[in-house]
Amino acid sequence: MMSRVPRLLTLALAAALIVASCAGSPATTSPGGSASPATDGSPSDGSSSSPTWTPAPTVPELTASPTPLPASGSVPLALVTGFKNYKVNGLTLAQLRTYLRAGKVLVPCGTVEAVQAAVGASSTEGWAACQQVDRIAGLISAGSGKLALLPPGLVSVKMKAVPLDGADLFGETPAREKPYPLAVDAPSGWKASWAAYDADEIRVVLTTGCTCPDRGVSYQTNTLRKGWDWLLGAGTAKYTGRHWDGRLDWWVVDAVRTGNAGAVHRLIRDADIAVSDFECAMTSNFVQHNEGTLFTVDPKVATLMRKAGFDVATIATDHMTNAGTRGLLETVDFFKKAGIKPVGGGKNLAEALKPAMIDVRGLKFAFVGFNAIGGSAYAGKSTPGVAQLTAANAKKAIDAARKAGADVVFALPQWSAVEYTNVMTGAERSLRDVLFKAGADHVIGADHHWAAAISITPGGASGNRYTAASQGNFWFGQDWSRQTMEGVMTMLTFRGTKLVQARLIPTVVLDNAQVNLVDPATDGQTVLNQVLSKSEIKPK
Description:
The protein is of the alpha/beta class. Helices cover 21% and strands 23% of the residues.
């Protein structure tokens, strides 16, 4: 364990990579299926679409500056921007110096000289006037492109913290453990709570979208014999264009890989907890499907997911009993043997409602799963199935989590009766309220097959409650539209029980199987706009 001061100076690189969200029922979504979306393939918000994970500043480098001095203070200053600003996802000290010289960074009064020394600036000419530290957060709106420096205690989910020289105070473990390059002595008058920071108090929960590795995924891994580990070799991609796909009459993206092999795997592995929405049953007698809406999955996927770093999988989905309740029970067994905790299904209702508990350095996170759309058999008192989303079942599951000592509770519903939309439907909002009333702190939904709206509203053990309508597709083959190819992974950062960051990581599925990261500042803008344009960001 590192000493407190070096641990102060740590940051997380992986957190600023990208965003994407995928979830949804595979039903009626195959190119060979009977139903097709009723739009022209453009996102309903009207948005349109060479990854560089630390995009260059939008202002030119003004003058050469001396090599920066090492940071010597005890309070790291986080680099923050507006919650919706994905044009800036990480800077080097040299780039930060450029922004400072252009007057584009708000700096707390009392820290200007220390910041100047840390970034190696020869003068403060052109810098914006310093601001009282407790006023800076109010000057950064959700959509703001402004940058600011803040002590860690004033960083909240209202804004987005970004890495500096690859270090990230609120990112995953490797980025938190990098020496943080910008620290100051706390000026007189600062509250101790503003300056306090302990990297051990930071926990990161990563969630991914809809996973059903049959059809295109199984075709690539099993039929073409690329092997399941091929999925873990995914890296980054960039768009080269788009073309019209006549199967269901939608635009699809053309993309090529750009290296960084294993980037997705590292994001999953390096999270404190990684959670999957798992749509389809793993069975010992699985069959590869190329079309239709019945699915079975190779049991090797359970081992693959544990190798990837997944800890929890919700199986309260609408295709979990495609192979009968035997398929569901096999899925439970395969996950348990692999060391992954399944939630939302089991041999009876009591097992289906049992929470998955994960302890991260003394803080307990609980996960419960529910199905609100049918498709699979519902569990009964003595019969197997998935947990139906009702007020009574939600209360039983969440009460059980609290009784087991849960500090933070996640509900994982599959809930969309309306697929292929980027809005959070009225029905989903009502179900969200049911889950919050039952005591859930956060809700990660699924079943649109598009990345869809989020909400951040006051309440719960974390101070603010995060809800995702859908994260889109993850390991799920739907290559007939841009929206079903794109998705987001969600990175939620907690400081103790308090939710302090929510970051979206955009992705694109290539070869109808492999999830790759796309640059949130460029190609990822389309799916991010698709999500954020319909979102409710009203934290306290």
